[in-house]
């Protein structure tokens, strides 16, 4: 049975006179991989930031497993939501293992005194954390690089390490912000497999991405934001076939348009991907 993991109700985010997100209702159910797409500046990252407590929505609520979340990032993580960022945010001069251990801190119960005195309770907790971190490194295929500095990893592996660090907080929902940005097609395919494997481990996934082929292959459901509003939501097939989505990416007006005529021209390339990634076409990955 599917149960809601994340529920955003009527979320609005204004920056002064600009409404970046407008009255968005959005649900992610257990066992789902959901995509969030939209032209540049549509409000995707702002919406993510509202979900993770980085921004306090001007209006609306965000709930995780039925409980309204406090708008504080560390409390959101503690509740069970983890995220990665558009730009890699690893501790470059720490090892691969240390980076994952940092991600475990919300799940470590040992207090300050125990850590300072390095008592038996702390050592036991430290061993357990390290074991879990190594399991995660095995899972993402980086166990053999546990002692490498993060900054020396190739780009694709740095992004994987970010995912492992996010998983270290034992989330029930993982938010990925453009996980394949800058990746080559092989790395993108590996990421796709990794996201499926994460879902199979019982973690629901919400992903923002510009690579339409990636999104439509991966997601059970896709929501389209345009000018801060949710325009369409449905299966990959439904979204790809919706003319309003293509029009929004091309910056063409359409019935009920919240203002897509102002969408940036660069979105036209992405629209090509919407149109060309319909089943049966052979267009390559788009970035
Ligand atoms: N902190 C902020 N202060 C003021 N305006 C902001 C802020 N963050 C975002 N915006 C504006 O809100 C709108 C939505 O931006 P956002 O970054 O959420 O879009 P996006 O869909 O994630 O875009 P992209 O795909 O290019 O990353 C844009 O007009 C942006 O300039």
TrEMBL record:
The keyword Nuclease is annotated on this UniProt entry: no
Biased composition annotated in UniProt, kind: Low complexity: 256-275
Residue ranges of the region described as Disordered: 256-287
One protein family per Pfam: BCA_ABC_TP_C
Domain of life of the source: Bacteria
Keyword terms: ATP-binding, Nucleotide-binding, Transport
PROSITE patterns: ABC_TRANSPORTER_2
Residue stretches making up the ABC transporter domain: 6-252
Membrane-crossing segments per the record: none
Single GO MF annotation: ATP binding
This protein's name: Branched-chain amino acid transport system ATP-binding protein
């Amino acid at each position: 049975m599917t149960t809601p993991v994340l529920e955003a109700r009527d979320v609005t985010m204004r920056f002064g006179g600009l409404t970046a997100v407008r009255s968005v209702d959005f649900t992610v159910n257990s066992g789902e991989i959901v995509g969030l797409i939209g032209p540049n500046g549509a409000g995707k990252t702002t919406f993510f930031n509202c979900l993770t407590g980085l921004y306090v929505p001007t209006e609306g609520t965000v709930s995780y497993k039925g409980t309204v979340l406090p708008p504080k990032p560390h409390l959101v993580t503690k509740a069970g939501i983890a995220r990665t960022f558009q730009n890699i945010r690893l501790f470059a001069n720490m090892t691969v293992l240390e980076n994952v251990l940092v991600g475990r801190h919300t799940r470590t119960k040992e207090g300050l005194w125990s850590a300072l005195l390095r008592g038996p309770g702390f050592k036991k907790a430290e061993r357990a954390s390290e074991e879990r971190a190594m399991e995660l490194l095995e899972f993402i295929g980086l166990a053999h690089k546990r002692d490498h500095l993060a900054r020396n990893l190739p780009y694709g592996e740095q992004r994987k390490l970010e995912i492992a660090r996010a998983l270290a907080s034992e989330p029930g929902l993982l938010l990925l912000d453009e996980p394949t940005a800058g990746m080559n097609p092989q790395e993108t395919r590996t990421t796709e497999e990794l996201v499926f494997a994460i879902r199979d481990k019982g973690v629901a996934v919400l992903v923002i991405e510009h690579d339409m082929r990636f999104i439509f292959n991966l997601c059970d459901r896709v929501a389209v934001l345009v000018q801060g509003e949710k325009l369409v939501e449905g299966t990959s097939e439904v979204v790809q076939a919706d003319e309003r989505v293509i029009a929004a990416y091309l910056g063409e007006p359409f019935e009920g348009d919240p203002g897509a005529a102002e969408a940036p021209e660069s979105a036209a390339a992405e629209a090509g991907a919407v149109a060309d990634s319909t089943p049966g076409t052979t267009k390559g990955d788009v970035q």
